Amino acid sequence: MRSRSTACPGHFAGARHRAARVVGAAAVALAVGGVAPAQAEAQQPPAPVPAPAPAPAPAAVPAPPAATSPAAPLSGASYDYEYDGADVGLPEHAWSGRAFVHEEVARDPGRPVPLVVFLHGLNESLVKYRWMGGGEEGDLRRIVSGLIEAGRIEPMLVAAPSSVVPSAVSLALFSWPGFDLDNFVALTAERLRGVATIDTSRIVVVGHSGGGCNIKGGLASSLAARNTPYAAFAVDTCMGTDLAQALVQAPPTTRTYVVWQEQGWRDRPFEMFLGAFRYTLATTSLPAGTVRELDRMDLELPQPHAAVVQHTLEKYLPRLFPSSGTAAPGARPRVPTLAAAAGPPPVVATPEPVAHPSSPGDEPGR
Question: Is residue 220 part of a domain?
């Protein structure tokens, strides 16, 4: 296994959406003079023309809006590292990793803290460090920092691989082939040695869009990791029935959540996915307290496919990892199960796998 790493400062501009509207008005007066008839029996000398009045001072015009000021520096540092896939002879497994260590985590490097691992979707434009300072969708470092600084969650780490191998992130069904969560966590821990300590019993994996479409990679392969995820989120993915079955049949200690929106990506087999999810839930023996949750979000927002990521983290991270001020030390949050909240699932025929839709370009599926 080959890896190389470099450090970079943690002052990166995020992609927080802002809009400013400046309305200005200026009035300009125009004077039109008449002309005497051209025909006259005796041409009289022209009447004296009064001296023009001084031109009025131009109306005050609002100054153009100042350029948007850069986002405030992050309260922490980012650490970069690489994996080339050479140890397994699969260069398509290569990725560039970036981890963010908030200053609250850095205060006590030996204290084990939770880790959020984020898998982005399609990356046809080959943006490096997507969702971690690269790209325009958002910046996970700022999302997590905001929750920490607002006292809503305990201090934690966030890290993400970014793939710039076209064959690995150009088709949703084949994104993140054979992603090895254990390897990613090990290389992240190595890069952060002496800086932060990962609590491997509290790893959260988030697969967004194409990051959760490949049943043999990405989010799905992470469910079988030795470091069993504490929670797994399928966020606005392709919604294939095979993923529904995999999420229900994940280790019972892994809390699984399916979060999606329909405003920005309607062409998906929602009913088949939900039927497969509920059928698998009804026919799988799971211990009491197992968490399997469905959550459709209504987001009347620009770029809802990207916005759903921030909404998901802001809703669920405080439930999973409340700050010490909102929960007893060491207490594990209890999240209601789907079965308890929604009643018995409907009886559905054994579902057949369906093809996952993938969207062209940089649209959903990414």
Answer: yes
Report pLDDT for 294: 97
Per the domain annotation, does 9 fall within a domain? Answer: no
Selection from 251, 272, 299 nearest residue 355 by Cα: 272
Alpha carbon distance 48, 17 (integer Å) = 63
Q: Are strands 292-296 and 255-260 parallel, antiparallel or unpaired?
A: parallel
Bridge partners, 294 (sequence order): 258
What band does 51 get if pLDDT is binned at 50, 70 and 90?
low
Nearest to 257, CA basis, from 268, 244, 269: 244
Residue holding tokens 């062409």? 267
Q: Count the residues in the chain.
A: 366
Q: Give how many domains the chain has, as a whole number.
A: 1
Q: Which domain holds residue 86?
A: 78-342
Mean pLDDT on 315-340: 61
296 belongs to a structural domain: yes
pLDDT tens digit sequence for 193-224: 999 999 999 999 999 999 999 999 999 999 99
Q: Is residue 306 part of a domain?
A: yes
CATH number at residue 243: 3.40.50.1820
pTM here is 0.73
Strand pairing class (255-260; 76-83):
unpaired
